[in-house]
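User: Hey, my collaborator sent me this sequence without any context and asked if I could get a structure. I don't really work with proteins. Can you help?
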Amino acid sequence: MSNKKKKQEEKQSKISKIFESFVGEVALNTISIHADKEEGVWKYYDSLGGSNDEALLCLHGVPGSCDVFFQQLLSLSSRGYRVVSAQYPPFWSYRTFCRSFKEFLSSLELEKIHLFGLGYGGFLIMKYLEKEKDQRIKSVVLCNTFVSTLFFSRLNTCGGMITWAPEFWLKRKLLKTFPQKEVLVPIAEGLDFMVEVVEKMTYEDISSRLTMISTETTIGEIDFDPQFVTIIDPTDKGYVPRKVRRKVATKFPDCKFAQVKIGGDFPQLSNPQEVNMHLIIHLRNTGWDPDQETRLNQKIPKSLPKKSKSKKKKKKSKKHKKKKKSKKVKETEQEEEKKEIKENENEKEKEKEKKKEEEEEEEEEEEEEEEEEEESKEKNEGGKTLKVKNKNDQEENN
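Assistant: No problem. I've predicted the 3D structure and written it out in structure-token form, which is a compact way to encode the shape of the chain:
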């Protein structure tokens, strides 16, 4: 058994090891929603558990699930942002999806919603914006997405009989969309994790997604302010050609572009730091920037795996050290606060002294001006008396 476990651990990607610790801390939620006489089960992770009425909601592509955005949940929640990673149920019409998605958003009890769509998830977000005028949607981020499914008609090579194809064939079809040549290490690690995700996908999920994406559909007119739209565009090659991705900007002419140097088809996994940075910048530009107090008070999911019981004593000692450190930190903070208070008092005293000096200077200037005025008056009076005397002398001589 131990050898098998070792082999399984060796097969696991680096990202999947981090994901295991994430799953141990954050619960997977499910909710069943009825739309157009069809029942669908939505699965989702909620980083802050409904403690905020504003959230960033992420939607995955055809190969994917709510697992693929766990690094965004970890990073952004540490800054006070509430992040929801959702997995949509199987659907066979966009009308059904839009109604189900709207009810799902209502179930989260959110007042302000920011959407992040990857691949086909971005296409679904645009389809929702086209069909529904939801005032709760405040901004949109799109990555590796498209405005028409015509490019994906090559996936339907079995004459519209995807629903009759066996599960292993459908999974193989999905995996063929991944790069078959050598790629950079970060992209390879992301692909390894995505292979594990595809292996966990159900037959209904794969068949419905492949059927919908392989039928020709285009995005119509969207009534949404393009100033609140950001397109994250990886500079390297992916399954969706760059020409196809660039057409998304035609729907949002004044949108913002954010480039990612290394990303591939799944930049949120292969280059999470850069993607998270662009997400935070986008959210701050929309006016959403949690305060420092909320960042500290929110319960943040831990990204580190749990240690064995034998190391509990070490944990305790570390806790005591942390407490001691925290006391020292508090003392230093108090000293810094006292220094700041003294500095503020000194500055106030200096300001008072400056004001007094300025007032004294103003008084002196006023006194000087008064003296000058008096002197000028005296001179004028003296001049007048001289003129009178001269006139009298002239009269006497005459």
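In plain terms: The beta strands are 28-35, 38-46, 54-59, 83-87, 112-118, 137-143, 229-234, 256-260. You can pass these tokens on to your collaborator as they are.
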